[in-house]
Amino acid sequence: MERRPRPGKSEGVAREYAQHPDHGEGSPVRFKIWLLAGFILLLFGILTVQLVRLQILQHDQYVARAASNRVRTISLPPARGLIYDADRNLLVENAPAYRITLVAAEIPDEEVGNVSAELAELFDLQAWRIEQQIWERKYSNDPFLPLLVHEEPTPAQVIDVTSSRSTLPGVSVDTVSVRRYEHGQLLGHILGYVGKITEAEYEELSGERYLYSDQIGRAGVEAAYERQLRGTAGRDIVEVDAIGNVLRTLDHSPPRPGLSAVLTIDIELQQRIEEILNNHLGASLYASAVVLDVHSGQVMAMVSVPNYDVNVYSEITTKEYQDLLDNPGQPLKNHAVQDQFPPGSIFKVVTAIAGLAEDAVDPETRIYSPGMLEVHHELSPGIIYRFGDTTQGVFNIRTALAESSNVYFYYVAGGDPYRNPENPPRHPSEQERVDELAENGIVAGDVEFDGVGNQALAHWAREVGFDSPTGVDLAGEAAGLITSAEQKLQAFGEEWRDGDTYNMAIGQGFTTVTPLQMAVATAAIANGGTVYEPRVVKELIDSEGRVIQPWQPVVRNQLDIDPEILRIVREGMALCTLMGTCHDALVALPEMLVGGKTGTAEFNQTGTAVSGAEEGPTHGWFIAFAPFDDPQIAMVVFFEFSAGYLAAGAGGEILRAWAETSGAIASAIPPPHARVAITDEEYERLYFAVRERSN
To answer: I need a surface site. Which of 61, 110, 113, 187 has the fewest CB within 10 A?
Structure first.
């Protein structure tokens, strides 16, 4: 018979069992069992995911890491392109050299101290610094990136490292090339130089297969044509043993050498110009000259003195570099393109173009200069501004250019001067003279006359290439400045006044240009109005001498102007050399008729141009084109702390140097005339002779 529990008692026991903390559905023991099981499953899941990642997803990566213990990729630097002059004479070549480098990843941890100590002893370095660099590179993103130990080891040091491979794991002797510059001082500003690539540059250019040991262009053509000259690196994939010795080559990709540059520079002309500038330097701290081909913009010569030898950059000391920086002549600066100065009277060729193009004057408009121009203050009758002139008399556009009359170009640009009616009238004799001139159709005094104004003058200045870089293929070119009324208001909070226009007319005030800009503008006047982009590289060739990138002239602007206007300006420039302020150039080259213009630009001690009412030290300028009949070249000469007539003397010698080296000398004019002795009859004869030659 089945025994049943007594009612009430068994139910209480069951209820008590279920409510015990170690039993029932909420039991902690059961929860812990499930938790342990879940944790074990999670571990197996993580392990499975990791195995999948290692064995499948990142299989190739870890195979490569394992292979890297015995397989190395060796970068092969390309041969940098050479540089030649216009006649393909070698100017820059690559010379072999050695460097000591190390790869931190190839140095066992336990050998780091020994390797550092041995290298420190070999090269007189600090062991702790080498060790620090090794450890930093070991734990960097690229432990195989070579570290430079010594840039210029001696032959004995090269032998020591080569024979100590067993005790210097990871250390190697790399064969590299260094640049050697023929005419390194004569052409330093044009050629430039190369320097070691920085870590920041290496990171930026690593995608272009630059090497950590590469040299990169720092100035001149070396910098402007870095990508073309550099070439493309190759590589060898090799198998190595435990100490880094190459066992066999697994793959080879040869480097592709860089292209070579052929310059437009005539070395003989460059040498003669450098000598001429140094001979005429006098009290000037620096000088520069540029000669351009007027039909292409090719730079035939560009000289800036003092200069420096770019070969010194391979071994220059801190003191030597500081001496270059402290030199008041600033030899590191190419004054032909990197400096900007007030142009003075050479800017009058632009004012002449603007006046003729805007119909402010015609070729026969005559203006009288009494030796100065008086401008009265509009609000204060007692204040009179006087803008000086270096000559006096009656001038037309040609003779004004020849004699460099300031007053003539004041009128052309700014019109008649303001005369305050509250001021006393002119002296009767002076008024009679002004009235007599006016009756003969000559502009004088405050007779009503409209000039072209600031905006039109600025427009034509920009048309011939001012106020922006010329685009020459050299780094660091300055832009110059042609100021507008709006710019003056923004910069100084002042309105543009007539005096500003008068100053601008003669290349003073806010106007600045570079010598190269002035040469480009002169070339445009000479060739009939084409503004070319100047170039110092004529073509790029391969290692076999084949032209890969031929150079084509680049036209930056074509002047929309009547050719007759430019011919009139050229005639005025020819008269300048025959009987005007450029006569000193004719003394050096009497066999050839050339066109020229001098400029004596006043400036204050900070280099800013002064106004026409002030005086200051001067710079000397001379621009020219030659020959007058069939222009081939345009040139500019600039001397700091000098005068226009002195620059013209040097310019004449430069013109002779070009004529002799090019074979262009031919009998063209009668013997030179002294401008102080020339008669009106002789002047008319010379004037019409120039006129006839230009037809």
So the answer is: 110
Q: Are 11 and 4 in contact (CB under 8 A)?
A: no
Give the H/E segment covering residue 230. helix 226-230
Domains, the chain: 71-263 (3.90.1310.10), 344-694 (3.40.710.10)
pLDDT band at 595 (very low <50, low <70, confident <90, very high): very high
> Could you report the per-residue pLDDT of 637-673, keeping only the tens digit for each?
999 999 999 999 999 999 999 999 998 875 444 444 4
Cβ neighbours, 10 Å, residue 643: 18
Q: Which long-range CB contacts under 8 A does 393-396 form with residues at least 24 apart?
A: 393/368, 393/369, 394/366, 394/367, 394/368, 394/369, 394/437, 394/442, 395/366, 395/367, 395/369, 396/363, 396/364, 396/365, 396/366
- The candidate with the shortest Cα–Cα distance to 173, out of 151, 195, 144, 197, is 151
For 67-71, 166-170, 271-275, 385-389, which range has the lowest pLDDT when averaged over its residues?
67-71
What is the β-pairing status of strands 442-443 and 366-369?
parallel
The phi, psi pair for 215, rounded to 5°, reads -100, 145
- Which of 222-236, 346-360, 395-409, 592-606 bottoms out in mean pLDDT, i.e. has the lowest? 592-606
Confidence (pLDDT) at 58 = 65
* Dist. CA 474–CA 223, nearest whole Å: 8
Scored b (16 or more CB within 10 A) or e, 268-293 reads ebbbbbbebbeebbeebebbbbbbbb
How far the first Cα of the chain sits from its last, in Å, is 151
Neighbouring residues of 395: CB distance < 8 A, sequence distance ≥ 6: 366, 367, 369, 403, 405, 408
CA–CA separation, 480 and 471 (whole Å): 13
Residue 21: asked if its preceding bond is cis (omega within 30°), the reply is: no
Per-residue DSSP letter, 675 = T
Q: Which amino acid is at 206?
A: S
Give dist(CA 192, CA 207) in Å, integer.
Answer: 25
What is the CA 381 to chain-centroid distance, rounded?
49
606: Cα separation from own chain's centroid: 23
Half-sphere exposure of 476 (CA within 13 A, CB side): 16
Residue 331 and residue 469: Cα distance in Å, rounded?
22
SS3 letters across 543-599: CCCCEEEECCCCEEEECCCCHHHHHHHHHHHHHHHHHCCCHHHHHHCCCCCCEEEEE
CA 682 – CA 410 distance, rounded (Å): 28
Phi, psi of 150 (to 5 degrees): -150, 130
The amino acid present at 131, given as its one-letter code, is: E
Q: How many Å apart are CA 398 and CA 144, to the nearest integer?
A: 72
Q: For residues 238 and 560, give the distance between their C-alpha atoms in angstroms, rounded to a whole number.
A: 65
DSSP SS3 for 457: helix
Considering the chain, what percentage of its residues have pLDDT values greater than 70? 87
> Does residue 622 register a pLDDT over 60?
yes
